[in-house]
Design goal:
Elements lengths: L1 E5 L12 E4 L9 E10 L2 H9 L8 E2 L4 E8 L11 E4 L12 E5 L3 E3 L6 H5 L2 H14 L11 E5 L4 H13 L3 E5 L3 H10 L3 E3 L5 H8 L5 E4 L3 H11 L5 E4 L17 E4 L4 H5 L6 H14 L7 E7 L2 H13 L5 E5 L4
Parallel strand pairs: 9-10, 9-12, 10-11, 12-13, 13-14, 15-16
Antiparallel strand pairs: 1-2, 1-4, 3-5, 3-7, 3-16, 5-6, 6-8
């Protein structure tokens, strides 16, 4: 089968940074689905893995952590799906990725593809939806239908996760949502996603939140946490909760003690990496997201389809992701037949 991968870690500008090659058909585990991949999306994790995680000697590593497609085979213990079902999912960081014609994935982290979206557009949802959902409802502990009189500050609102998080908070809770954006196009985007207020993360967050007269109970820091952390601690209300998804090199964790703040990391791959007892929650979650898309509660966050998968187009997608200027999600169709 066709696949796209890399032979050595390094910059996306290097010759052969990503290559197309023939890979063996995946072998199925008992709970696995063999999916014919018809759409994928690119996420920051793709860039992080490719640039820093070298393949084993002589191997070509396939990445990609979002897909939508059609089931072609099922493992011996599969009970949730059948051959021919259309599905979407974010995969498992410990297994080969989705940038291939065929992909093996555990059914317990897979959901039914929204019927209202094409495959590529559907592939723009799983990783960001799981991350946003787990961050809001599990890490921060917000309950659906709650939050009246309280507020959530989202730092980095125009990216993939921020775009879904704004929608979930506005559609499923009563929280007031403040999101950050720094360019006219990203400001307009987060407003379209439903943010009540937009502030600029390149200016003083403390001053802007004071001007709004908002002291948030919750802060979701999606990027730039290391630089923003002192401001977050200052502007959040006592006994508030901070959750983040990025990789700061150092934080003054002792600074959160005077306000008795809670602190959480969200990492959507944890359940699959450690085969947790509640791994099936991602299956349940994705089915819920699919229904919310189909009934119009959630709107698409895809802003660009780069065409069919190829090494050239995948390299362009990675370059755009590395630029830090992607709004919403970039997606690609499956390989040309």
């Amino acid at each position: 089968m066709k696949a796209i991968g890399y032979k050595q870690s390094g910059p996306i500008t290097a010759v052969g940074a990503l290559v197309e090659f023939e890979a063996p058909k995946p072998e199925l585990r008992s709970h696995d689905l063999l999916v014919e991949v018809k759409g994928i999306s690119v996420n920051p994790v793709d860039v992080k893995v490719r640039s820093a995680m070298a393949p084993e000697a002589g191997q070509t590593k396939v990445i990609g952590y979002d897909a939508a497609g059609v089931i072609r085979e099922v493992g011996s213990d599969v009970s949730r799906f059948k051959v021919g079902d259309a599905v979407f999912y974010a995969g498992d960081l410990t297994r080969p990725g989705t940038n291939a014609e065929l992909h093996a994935v555990d059914e317990r982290i897979v959901g039914k593809k929204p019927t209202s979206l094409g495959f590529a557009e559907a592939a723009g949802f799983p990783l960001t939806s799981i991350t946003a959902w787990e961050l809001l409802f599990e890490s921060l502990g917000v309950k659906e239908g709650s939050g009246e009189g309280e507020s959530l500050l989202i730092i980095g609102g125009a990216g993939g996760v921020g775009s879904v998080l704004i929608q979930l908070a506005k559609q499923l809770t009563d929280l007031t949502v403040v999101a950050t954006a720094s360019r006219p196009d990203t400001v307009e985007w987060v407003k379209q996603m439903g943010a009540d207020h937009v502030i600029n993360h390149r200016e003083s967050l403390v001053d802007q939140m004071k001007a709004l007269e908002i002291e948030p109970r919750y802060v979701a820091s999606l990027n730039g946490t290391e630089g923003h952390f002192p401001a977050i601690v200052e502007l959040i209300q006592p006994r508030g909760h901070i959750a983040l998804i990025d990789d700061p090199q150092g934080l003054d964790i002792n600074s959160i003690k005077p306000k008795a703040l809670s602190f959480s990391w969200e990492f959507m791959f944890t359940r699959s990496m450690f085969q947790t007892d509640d791994i099936e929650q991602q299956h349940v979650l994705l089915n819920r997201v699919s229904a919310l898309i189909d009934d119009g509660t959630l709107i698409s966050t895809v802003t660009n389809n780069l065409g069919a998968m190829s090494a050239e187009m995948m390299q362009e997608a990675h370059a755009q992701q590395e630029s830090g200027r992607v709004i919403g999600k970039n997606v690609l169709d499956g390989f040309d037949s």
